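Hi Y.,

Following your request, here is the sequence exactly as I used it, all 245 residues.
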Amino acid sequence: MEEAQAILIRLMEEFLLNYKGLITFCVESLSAITGVLLYKKYKFTTGKYFIFFLIYLTICDTIGNYTLHIRNGGFFSFLEGTVFVQNYWWFTLCWKIGAILFFSFYFQKILVNKAFRQVLSYSTYVFFVFSISYVIINWKDFFIRFFPAISVFGAYIVFLCSVFYFIEILKSDKILTFYRSLNFYISTGIFVWWLIITPLVFYDIYMTNRDWNFIFLRWQIYLFANILMYSTFTFALIWCKPEND
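Below is the corresponding structure, written out as tokens. Let me know if you'd prefer a different format.
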């Protein structure tokens, strides 16, 4: 029995090692392709910006996979031995900072309450200045790890976006048809994703120490969170009705 469990665990680890990136890329690309195909549906709503964002994420992830082509004489083998041998810097810029700026922009477009928009706007300015300053101060670490401080601050911005939106929904007639709202699924998707992923950045030390038990657990959590979030986006784009925000 124990031997069978060990074999099953090993097979799962090999599967994650070989296909986690491909699976994430597939569900991410599916949401972007769905958005492109349904662009006319959301052309005159703020939903079009979200479709642009999904395309942006797919492009960023594709570029971020350059690290797979560095070793063993790959196309980017000239980067071997440089600070760019890892892609922490790229995803810090594109996702940890870039995605947060987009969500703030998007929710300022759909929020009605002026006070909510102002709080979100000021918080985003502080986040951006803080993030750039933090990167400059910790320049060397920028290329070898993610920054928990930026991740937590980014999660705070996401939570502001989602909570403000949920409050407005609860106080308006939209509560009657929230299940057909693209913005509701966007808010729920990003809220749950950041809630799951943010605590992991505090344990990145185990990545550098090559603690494979943690690494595989981290991969499983990321894979589950990505599948859940992008599947939610794909479903929402198909199911929801365009909203004139």
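The chain has one domain: 2-36+46-239.

Thanks again,
Q.
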